[in-house]
Design brief:
Site (Electron transfer via tryptophanyl radical): 285, 338, 361
Structural class: alpha/beta
Pfam families: DNA_photolyase (PF00875), FAD_binding_7 (PF03441)
Strand order of the largest sheet: 3-2-1-4-5
Largest sheet: 5 strands, parallel
CATH superfamily of the largest domain: DNA Cyclobutane Dipyrimidine Photolyase, subunit A, domain 3
Number of domains: 3
GO molecular function: deoxyribodipyrimidine photo-lyase activity; DNA binding; FAD binding
Keywords: Chromophore, FAD, Flavoprotein, Lyase
Protein name: Deoxyribodipyrimidine photo-lyase
Order of helices and strands: EHEHHEHEHEHHHHHHHHHHHHHH
Oligomer: single chain
CATH class of the largest domain: Mainly Alpha
Bound molecules: flavin-adenine dinucleotide
Length: 429
C-alpha cells in the first residue's frame, strides 16, 4: 500500500503540513500534481505566466526529489479522472492534501473524498495555506469578525508557537514511491513560456525591515512581491509570519489581511459573485464599455491610473497603493461594476488570488466588509502628489506624460466625484 500526497497551492517540500503527515503515515508517498483541464481552461492566454510559474515550481520539486529517486507524478486531466486512474494503478491507503478554501475547490475535494471513501480510502486535509482559517478567530459571541482591526488584534492574541510550527520533514530513500519524471512540456499542456520576468521572490531582509517606510511609494522597490509565491505555496506562510515577527510588524499586518479575506470568502462564499453588503447591489452602474476599455489600456488621462494599468498589462504586477487608486477610479469615477475590474485583475495579476482580489475590490467599491464609507473617494491627482511626487513611477510607464500627446482626462475629477456620491446615495437610502 501507498499514500498519495496531492500538491495544489503548496508547491514546496519544506514546511508543508499535508506532506509532513503523509511522510509520517508509515507508508511510502506518491507525490501527485494534476494539471486540471477544467482549471487550465480558465487561462485564456497561451503565454500565461502563472501556468509557467507552476510548471517551473514542479520542475524544481523534481530536482529536489531526484535525490530520492522519484518525481512528481503529473496527470493532465480532471481531478476525478486522475483518481479513477490512480485507484486502478495503485493500492492506496489514503490521500493527503492541504485545504483550499475556494468554493469550487471545496466542491472538487468533496467529490474526491466521496470517491475515495467508496473504496475505503481515507482523505485527509490539513490547514497549511493560512495561519488561521475561517471559524478559528471568532468574536466572544461566536460570530466571525467582519472588521479587520479587531480581527487582527484577536489574531495576534491567538498566535502561538503551535501556529508557527515548522513541518519540515527529513527525507530518506524510503520516503517515496518511485515515479519516472513525466512532467509534460508547456506546449503539451497547450501553453508556452511567458516573456514576463517574475524572478523568484525571496524573503528579503532589506525590503521587509524598511517596509513601513517604503511600502506606499510605487517608484521604490519597497514591497516583497511574494504574492505569487504565497498564492502557489512555493513559500510557507508560517515562515513569512515568523520573519515578520522578527523584522517588521507593519508587514505582518499585510499577512493578516490575507488571512482576513480568506476567512471572509470561506464563511461568506456568496461574496464571490455578490456584494458583501446587499444594499450595494442596488447601485446603478453606468458600465460604459468604451470607458472600461480606456481604463484597461491605461488611457484615462489620469497619470497614476494609467501608469498602474500599464504596469499591470506589461508585468502582471501593480503596486498596492496604485491598485487602490485604479479600483476606486473604476468603481467611483467611472461607476463601473467592481466585478468588471475584478475579472480584469484576475486575468492579468500574477499574484491573483480569489479571496484577496475579491475582498480588496469590494473594499475599494465600498460594498465589502470593513470598506471605507462610500463618500470617501480617492482623488487620483492628490494620490499622485502624495505618493509619486516627482513622477518617477508615472514616467516609467507613461512615456508621453510630459508631451502634448498625453490624453485629456476622460472624466472631470470634481464632476465624477459628485456623480459617484449621488449614485451611491440613491442606492443606499
Ligand atoms: P507585500 O506588500 O510585500 O505584502 C506581503 C503579502 O501580504 C502579499 O504578497 C499578500 O500575500 C499579502 N497582502 C498584502 N496586502 C494585502 C491585502 N490588502 N489583502 C490581502 N493580502 C495582502 N493581493 C493578492 O495577493 N492577490 C490579489 O489578487 C490581490 N488583488 C488586489 C486587488 C485590489 C483592487 C487591491 C487594492 C489589492 C489587491 N491585493 C491582492 C492586495 C495587495 O495589493 C497585494 O497583495 C500586494 O500588492 C502584493 O504585492 P507584494 O507581494 O509585494 O506584497
Amino acid at each position: 500500500k501507498v499514500v498519495v500526497f496531492w500538491f495544489r497551492r503548496d508547491l514546496r517540500i519544506e514546511d508543508n503540513v499535508g506532506l509532513y503527515f503523509a511522510l509520517n503515515s508509515g507508508y511510502r508517498v506518491l507525490p501527485l500534481f494534476i494539471f486540471d483541464k477544467s482549471i487550465l481552461a480558465r487561462f485564456s492566454r497561451r503565454d500565461d505566466a502563472r501556468v509557467d510559474y507552476i510548471h517551473q515550481a514542479i520542475n524544481s520539486l523534481n530536482n529536489t526529489l531526484k535525490d530520492y529517486h522519484t518525481s512528481v507524478m503529473c496527470l493532465h486531466t480532471t481531478a476525478s479522472e486522475a483518481y479513477d486512474k490512480l485507484f486502478e494503478q495503485y493500492d492506496i491507503a489514503a490521500i493527503y492534501c492541504n485545504e483550499d478554501y475556494e468554493p469550487t475547490s471545496i466542491d472538487r475535494d468533496n467529490l474526491i473524498a466521496k470517491k475515495a471513501s467508496s473504496r475505503n480510502i481515507s482523505f485527509f486535509q490539513y490547514k497549511d495555506h493560512v495561519i488561521f482559517k475561517g471559524g478559528e478567530i471568532l468574536k466572544s459571541d461566536g460570530t466571525p469578525y467582519q472588521i479587520y482591526t479587531p480581527y487582527a488584534k484577536m489574531w495576534r492574541v491567538k498566535l502561538d508557537d503551535r501556529a508557527l510550527f515548522d513541518y519540515t520533514t527529513i527525507l530518506c530513500q524510503e520516503s517515496f514511491v518511485s515515479v519516472e519524471n513525466d512532467l509534460p512540456t508547456l506546449e503539451e499542456l497547450g501553453f508556452e513560456r511567458s516573456s514576463l520576468d517574475y524572478t523568484h521572490p525571496i524573503l528579503d531582509e532589506g525590503i521587509i525591515s524598511n517596509y513601513d517606510k517604503n511600502r506606499d511609494y510605487p517608484a521604490i522597490e519597497g514591497t516583497t512581491r511574494l504574492g505569487i509565491a504565497l498564492r502557489f505555496g512555493t513559500i510557507s506562510i508560517r515562515k513569512c509570519v515568523n520573519f515578520a515577527l522578527h523584522h517588521n510588524e507593519v508587514w505582518l499586518k499585510e499577512l493578516i489581511w490575507r488571512d482576513f479575506f480568506s476567512q471572509i470568502m470561506y464563511l461568506f462564499p456568496q461574496v464571490v459573485n455578490s456584494c458583501f453588503k446587499d444594499k450595494y447591489e442596488r447601485i446603478n452602474w453606468r458600465n460604459n464599455e468604451e470607458e472600461f476599455d480606456l481604463w484597461c489600456k491605461g488611457q484615462t488621462g489620469y497619470p497614476l491610473v494609467d501608469a498602474g494599468m500599464r504596469e499591470l498589462n506589461e508585468t502582471g504586477f501593480m503596486h498596492n497603493r496604485v491598485r487602490m487608486v485604479v479600483a476606486s477610479f473604476l468603481t467611483k469615477h467611472l461607476l463601473i461594476d467592481w466585478r468588471w475590474g475584478e475579472a480584469y485583475f484576475a486575468q492579468y495579476l500574477l499574484d491573483y488570488d480569489l479571496a484577496s482580489n475579491n475582498g480588496n475590490w469590494q473594499w475599494a467599491a465600498g460594498c465589502g466588509c470593513d470598506a471605507a464609507p462610500y463618500f470617501r473617494i480617492f482623488n487620483p491627482l492628490e494620490q499622485q502628489k502624495k505618493f509619486d511626487k516627482t513622477g518617477v513611477y508615472i514616467r516609467k510607464w507613461v512615456q508621453e506624460f510630459d508631451s502634448l500627446d498625453y490624453k485629456n482626462p476622460i472624466v472631470d475629477n470634481k464632476e465624477a466625484r459628485i456623480r459617484a456620491i449621488e449614485t451611491y446615495k440613491k442606492a443606499l437610502i
